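Before the break, one more example. Copy the sequence into your notebook; we will annotate it together after we see the structure.
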Amino acid sequence: MSEAAATQDGLLARTIAALGRAAAWLTLAMTLLTFLVVVLRYGLNEGWIWMQESVTYLHATVFMVAAAWTMQCDEHVRVDILYRARSMRYRLWVDLAGTLLFMAPFSVFLLYIGWDYVLVAWQVRETSAEPGGLPLVWLLKALILVLPALLLLQAVVTARHCTMMLREGRVER
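Here is what the structure looks like once it is written out:
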């Protein structure tokens, strides 16, 4: 791998990690906001739709933005009965194949099918159907494109890393 490609991969990986860490902090805001909604609703018999919708927006943001970072940290859900006990070379091949055969095509497909859906939401500046709801549904729906875009960037980093490790032979056989 060229030095420029390695630098580019490092920048992509750091950007994905920074976005993931920032999104992870939203879980604290989401927890506190949920606590406040419950206290207001059941303690003071008050409730605001916008506040409840905010929890949903935060949850969607955490999931959609942090997914690529989770993949980068190898913390995603995986059935690793056969994976964990295998050699590093085997795991690199599985990661490379999974990235090229599943993650990258899925990301491209999601970008393709989500594009028009998100575009319409942006064109009409879609708002909540609920009275008192947030007027930012169009922005929330943009996350449908953020998820596959970040996953696709992480797929590039993962594929290059696996390829480099396999080519350089820095793995046990």
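Residues 3-168 form one domain. The two ends are 21 Å apart (CA to CA). Try to locate both features in your own notes.
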